[in-house]
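stage 2 :: seqdesign
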């Protein structure tokens, strides 16, 4: 199932209506955009990945999630790539060693999903 367009918008609208009517919420919090960046990597160029994962999101009114998918789980740089993980508010960097096609990982591995 694909969570976008009308399916997601309708679900969000239903949740907001339920919160307002059933839970006594007087105002629903403003939604913020989410930006998901998927970076598939086989060669694990750590310096390049460091630059990508260090994108400055201060002042950005969006939640940013950068997912680095390492397509070679036997990479000698795997630990260095995993060290790039960051769990700061509004800026999430996670790494997933897959050994599989990146799209396949996103569809089948919840731990690597957003």
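stage 2 :: out
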């Amino acid at each position: 199932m694909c969570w976008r367009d009308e399916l997601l918008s309708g679900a969000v609208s239903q949740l907001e209506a339920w919160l307002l009517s059933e839970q006594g919420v007087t105002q629903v919090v403003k939604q913020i955009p989410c930006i998901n960046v998927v970076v598939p990597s086989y060669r694990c160029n750590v310096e390049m990945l460091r630059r990508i994962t260090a994108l400055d999101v201060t002042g950005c009114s969006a939640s940013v999630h950068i997912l680095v998918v390492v397509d070679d789980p036997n990479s000698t740089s795997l630990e260095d790539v995993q060290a790039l993980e960051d769990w700061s508010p509004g800026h999430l960097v996670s790494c997933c060693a897959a050994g599989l096609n990146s799209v396949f990982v996103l569809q089948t591995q919840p731990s690597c999903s957003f």
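stage 3 :: structure notes
- Strands lie at 34-41, 63-70, 86-88, 91-97.
- The helical segments are 5-22, 46-53, 78-82, 102-108.
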